[in-house]
Amino acid sequence: MASDAALLIVAHGSRRAASNDEVRELTRRIEAISADHYDPVACAFLELAEPSIPDGLRALIEGGARRIVVVPYFLSAGRHVAEDIPGEVSLVLGEFPDIDIRIAPYVGLAAGIPGLVLDQAAAL
Amino acid sequence: MASDAALLIVAHGSRRAASNDEVRELTRRIEAISADHYDPVACAFLELAEPSIPDGLRALIEGGARRIVVVPYFLSAGRHVAEDIPGEVSLVLGEFPDIDIRIAPYVGLAAGIPGLVLDQAAAL
How far apart are CA B53 and CA B8, in angstroms? Predict the structure, then answer.
């Protein structure tokens, strides 16, 4: 089956390399379970790590993506989710107006979050 | 059935009141689905919002909790998860050495996270 779209997971980015590597590892795990639907799956960072959101989007477009779904890897809707991520995406939409880039609801809005919190409590 | 423990969901805290209210609303939703197992379910904030982690723990203890599970509502293991939350918890353990307080793995470690990211991509 041909993939529908490329997926870009956007995290905040950290001074701790291990935190950024955690996002990269998550990206690989997501790619492994979703290659039929999203291909490729990549990640980008708002700050403090590479690639930036515009660079991440440009790399996907240069690789042939025509449709990209951006998932903000954030638990709450602060300024980063409400303003900064849309601003960075708009920048690239200005350069490539024929590419379909959409921003999905951030992870904290997922219906599965309460269950996930309880899973972690039970993991003790 | 008697509840096993109290649950304290610990978030970073934000200058945006709406972000903090989102955590409080999540806390109510978790309490609604877990009252048999964790009771009460409360939240606390590392900074920028009330209650603080020590105050949140003290309120649970004063309410009768003898066992408390703390779930860090964070997606990655930065300094906040690795040092700040354990430090705040230790403070209260020093005051109440006979209370059993344990810190669960942070939310970003949950096995369900990759599926949740894909759920959000599909929500578009």
Answer: 9
Q: Which two tokens stand for residue B105?
A: 């793995």
Closest listed residue to residue A61, CA positions, set A95, A111, A38, A21: A95
Close Cβ partners of A96 (under 8 Å, ≥ 6 residues apart): A61
Radius of gyration of chain A (CA): 15
Domain spans, chain B: 5-122
Residue entry with tokens 């042939």? A64
With a pLDDT cut of 90, the percent of chain A lying above it is: 86
Q: What pLDDT sits at residue A3?
A: 60
Q: Nearest-CA neighbor of A109 among B117, B49, B114?
A: B117
Cβ distance B105 to A114 less than 8 Å, yes or no, reads no
Alpha-helical segments (H) within chain A? 17-34, 53-62, 79, 85-95, 113-122
The fold adopted by the segment(s) B5-122 is Rossmann fold (3.40.50)
**Contact by Cβ (8 Å): A42, A9:** yes
For residue A97, what are its two tokens?
Answer: 């107006």
Q: Which chain A residue's Cα is nearest to B4? A: A122
**A positions 84-113 inside 8 Å of B (CB):** 102, 104-113
List of chain B residues whose C-beta atoms are within 8 Å of the C-beta of residue A119: 110-112
pLDDT digits (tens, 9 = 90+) for A11-39: 999 989 999 999 999 999 999 999 789 99
